[in-house]
Design a protein that fits this description.
By secondary structure, the protein is an alpha+beta fold. Helix content is about 35%, strand content about 20%. It has a 7-stranded mixed sheet. A 5-stranded mixed sheet has the order 4-5-6-1-12, sandwiched between helices. A two-stranded antiparallel ribbon has the order 2-3.
Length: about 450
Amino acid sequence: MLETSMPGAPAYTRHRLAWLDQLAYELFRATGRSQLMQCLWLYDRDVNLAALLRTRERFAALSFNRLIEPSPLPWGRPRWVKPAVTAIPLEQSADPLPRSRLLHWANQHARAPIDPVIGPAVRMAIQPFDDGSTAVSLVGSHLLLDGLGAVRAIAAAVNGIGLPSPYAVAGARGRLSGCVSDAWQVLADAPRTVAALARIAHANWYKSAVPVLRSVATVAEAGHEPSTIVELPSVVVTVESDAWLACQQRLGGSSNTLLPGFVASLASRLGRRRLSDGAISLLVPINRRRGLDDERALAIDFHTMNVAPAGLDTSLRPVNASLEALVRGARKSQTGPLASFLPAIAWMPRSAAKTLVDRLFNYASELPASCSDVGMLPDGLARIDGAPCRQVLTRAVDVNVTRQDLERSQGHLVVVASRYGQTISLCIEACQLGPTQTTPDELRLLVSRTLADFGLDAIIDA
């Protein structure tokens, strides 16, 4: 169900989080794990600071610069609000770094404090490098927007379009007013909440959730503290688009099948194969956003694409068939069977959010690898300082990830691909715990070998 504020709707229904967004929020509160988006602009010169600041001001004034305000009621729904301080923090360094430190600097900026409740939920930074180039970074919480939504929001700010913020300032409702308004919301949601609770009780899903199917031990290994924070290794791959398309054609791939083939091959090297049949489960997001006025943060459906990894570097035809099957089933969301449980999310213990996500993506048996294709980036996106940059990178970054999180999901692999100009960029974040924890050098080696299997020449930044 599409949940957005409609003209003339009762006040208590306006600007509340959609249920899927609330599930993501509850998961954040339960785990402390932050899923972030990062956009990087690379210039071969100094940036036009005055134009960049104008873009920053326009973005801060749009509806996407927002925070989550929890309800004063235990079972009330959180709402979108405007930050009391709307300016987006900007960090600017005057000391050039070696160009080889680009990704290290980007990772450090992504680990600056981000909080979707108290703010800031978005940060910007500028960094010069010793070869005369300059990078601009914009990092935001995934609880605010999904990747395609963020791309559109930034492009809207660059182009001077978009919706002004319709939200009240955080705290403006007052506690009594908030309690009354949210009580009406609880009553309005009551029929769907009761139905969802009944379905949960009938399905008995909580007790039977996520059976341990792997023979490999998933409990904390001796000497490893489950709460230890793990920094996930990442690399950025840059390939000429002509070479990428030529490889896809040479292997008999149809449109956009080289990316899932590559990700499946890399997942196989990382050991993310299903126990049942050795196939790779690719988690593919499908965009469902309905314009700039769609308030949902996660306006996407998730679908699983099953790929047998053997022989993909010689033929992509099996991927063609898998992609066709995914497209045929795209109208029926994979989250559909469990989406009916979401109206009860506010009544569940917070820890149940983790169980719901486990059931949603079946981590114990499927070992999914996330494969996102942003596609051709909008022209406006590349003009963050008013003029085109040399390269744009779009990344997914997970921070505050504990060893226990990785044991629960039995590792991690996320690949975000985008195209700008004549290049295709793959931003890869991955980590496996066994038999030893993946290091940045090991990830780079695995990516390099996978590229070599496909006969692709690329630049790898790590």
